[in-house]
Amino acid sequence: MATPGSGLDRLRLVEVPFVPEVRLHVAQDAMVWWARMQARSQAMLTPPFWASAWAGGRAVARYVLDNPHIVAGRRVLDVASGSGLVAIAAGKAGASAVIANDIDPYAVAAITLNAKANDVPIIESHADLLDGDGGDAEVVLAGDVFYTEPMAGRMLAFLERAAARGAQVFAGDPGRGYVPADRLRIVASYRIPAVDAFDDALLGSMHVCTLRRYP
């Protein structure tokens, strides 16, 4: 939970572009927030991926809200949850239980704030789950996770293990360069609207993908 002086008290609560059903606490400029917090703590901090609503996450959240049957009455895991956007969308769409997982403690704190702001019950998880298979989650969601080569490799292996045990898997892809396109099948595409994040402004479309099935 955020406390005065933690940095999370400096965020603003806004409707998410393209997903107005959800409100998030976001930084007006995530990079400025990052620099300020590093100066305050005199330490290197993980980039604040949770302080913006990234395009891949918005695509998955939109898809889940428009297709609630995917998660309704089911156990959902949102991995690398960041702000908790996708997890909150799953909760609003009727999931029976939602776990939002992120290894960044600031992200976990932001998820707690955002879930409360949206009146959606979320179970927060701070563990590194990527060497597992998602446990008993019936649906595994990953918003915007193919942003570096090492992360893309670990995430693909995790999603394939989850699918192999029977979970439905959906991941966001705004074309960041490391997406394993030969292993994914696009199920929905959206145009990226005007956003605050410069990196997203350089992208054109955001996709929702599931894993390809091979004989």
What does this entry show, briefly?
By secondary structure, this protein is an alpha/beta fold. The chain has 6 helices and 9 strands, in the order ββααβαβαββαββαβ.
Can you describe what's shown?
By secondary structure, the protein is α/β, with parallel strands linked by helices. It has a single domain, classed as 3-Layer(aba) Sandwich (Rossmann fold), CATH 3.40.50.150. It is built from six helices and nine strands, in the order E-E-H-H-E-H-E-H-E-E-H-E-E-H-E. It has helices at 30-41, 55-66, 85-92, 105-117, 149-164, 198-201, and strands at residues 12-16, 19-26, 75-79, 97-101, 123-125, 139-142, 168-173, 184-191, 205-211. The strands form two sheets. Strands 5-4-3-6-7-9-8 form a seven-stranded mixed beta sheet, sandwiched between helices. Strands 1-2 form a two-stranded antiparallel ribbon. Strand 1 and strand 2 form a beta hairpin. The protein is globular and about 45 Å long. The model is unreliable at 1-6 (pLDDT under 50).
Fold topology:
Layout: E1 12-16, E2 19-26, H1 30-41, H2 55-66, E3 75-79, H3 85-92, E4 97-101, H4 105-117, E5 123-125, E6 139-142, H5 149-164, E7 168-173, E8 184-191, H6 198-201, E9 205-211
Parallel strand pairs: 3-4, 3-6, 4-5, 6-7
Antiparallel strand pairs: 1-2, 7-9, 8-9
Helix pairs in contact: 2-3
Which descriptors apply to this entry?
two-stranded antiparallel sheet, single chain, globular, 215 residues, 24% strand, 7-stranded mixed sheet, 6 helices, alpha/beta
